[in-house]
Specification:
316 residues; binds magnesium ion; mainly alpha; 18 helices; 0% strand; binds ligand RVK
Length: 316
């Protein structure tokens, strides 16, 4: 049974707001150890209840906004437009990866950013920066997996040329699409779909391990680092472990420590695409920053993306 327009629109909103909430909440603990975070926040609710003021997102959401704007405006990834969006949204204080910063500054200054992306890390970046921003691709192309796979690749290329950086983005986009389709998540089918699409032995091994996760403590074995391979499977596994709870999905990856903003941004985007905006913690939705590209803008952007999706895939 296909989802009604309202339900699906709420899932688009849930995805973008879920990403921003995960990013902003996780951003408070970036680079901290699992033990330190656990000592301060022994339970999921203590972590979720912690923010009392506006929460501010980091580069993860900032760059996802650029991807979503490009897709809403043009219906597909056009590198020139994507780079313009990245450059115009670039606010260094949001905290970017060092390679990404060098590439974005080249874009801003009209220099050859491709050369910078090729040379900064020989072989290209395998950071999680392409995966952290890819969720809008998963939403727009949720009904066309081969297009999703290619569009996710194109969305990665300006900054992430390494195959592991690209595949991390493709898998996260697919996880968003699968989440956005599910009415009641079937874990086995979810992982079978991801494993069927998966191309490298490295991700296959991680996803097989992710499929075996049974407790939140198991997540730490999957990784908590800034490399895509060490964070994308962890975020996906957290969603699959507790699909009915955004709060648990996001908190469990923050409890793993390390790259907490990005782990929680990715897990939050997949969770929000599945649960929809109404099943996100409303207090945190209300605390997302009220800046010009804050909460209201994200909701509007999700609606614009949804309208684009309806053009590509009219309701049955
Ligand atoms: C600060 C060696 C490599 C590599 C390669 C490592 C924000 C480097 C977000 C690099 C995310 C880091 C994160 C990030 C997103 C990547 N050889 N090391 N071939 N490729 N690395 O710079 O957008 O937090 O240590 O391309 O992927 O919240 O600095 O940026 O956590 O991964 O940054 O890769 O980062 P970058 P990014
Ligand atoms: Mg960040
Ligand atoms: Mg991060």
């Amino acid at each position: 049974m296909s989802l009604s327009d309202d339900v699906l629109r709420h899932r688009f909103q849930g995805c973008l707001l879920g990403l921003a909430i995960g990013d902003a909440l996780g951003g408070k603990f970036e680079a901290q150890s699992a033990e330190g975070i656990r000592a301060r926040f022994p339970t999921v609710s203590s972590l979720i209840d912690y923010p009392q003021e506006e929460i501010w997102y980091t580069d993860d959401t900032q760059m996802a906004i650029g991807v979503a704007e490009t897709l809403a405006d043009h219906g597909e990834i056009v590198e020139r437009h994507l780079c313009t969006a990245f450059a115009s949204n670039y606010v260094p204080s949001r905290g970017y990866g060092r390679g990404a910063r060098a590439v974005l500054e080249a874009m801003e200054e009209g220099r050859d950013y491709r050369q910078v992306a090729e040379q900064y890390f020989p072989g290209g970046s395998y950071g999680n920066g392409a995966a952290m921003r890819v969720a809008p691709v998963g939403l727009l192309f949720r009904d066309d997996q081969s297009r999703l796979w290619e569009q996710a690749r194109l969305s990665a290329l300006p900054t992430h040329l390494h195959p592991l950086g690209i595949e991390g983005a493709q898998l996260l986009a697919l996880a968003v699409a699968l989440g956005s389709h599910s009415q009641s998540l079937d874990r086995d089918t979810f992982f079978t779909n991801l494993l069927t699409a998966c191309q490298s032995a490295a991700y296959r091994t991680k996803l097989e391990e992710a499929a075996r996760v049974r407790t939140a403590d198991d997540l730490s074995h999957l990784g908590n680092r800034i490399e895509a391979l060490e964070s994308v499977p962890t975020a996906i596994a957290s969603f699959a472990l507790t699909p009915e709870s955004f709060e648990e999905t996001v908190s469990h990856v923050i409890f793993v420590g390390g790259d907490t903003d990005t782990l929680a941004a990715m897990a939050g985007a997949v969770s929000g695409a599945y649960l929809g905006i109404d099943r996100l913690p409303q207090r945190l939705v209300g605390l997302v920053e009220s800046s010009p590209k804050g909460r209201s803008y994200l909701l509007e952007l999700a609606d614009r993306l949804f309208a684009r999706h309806r053009q590509l895939t009219p309701a049955a």
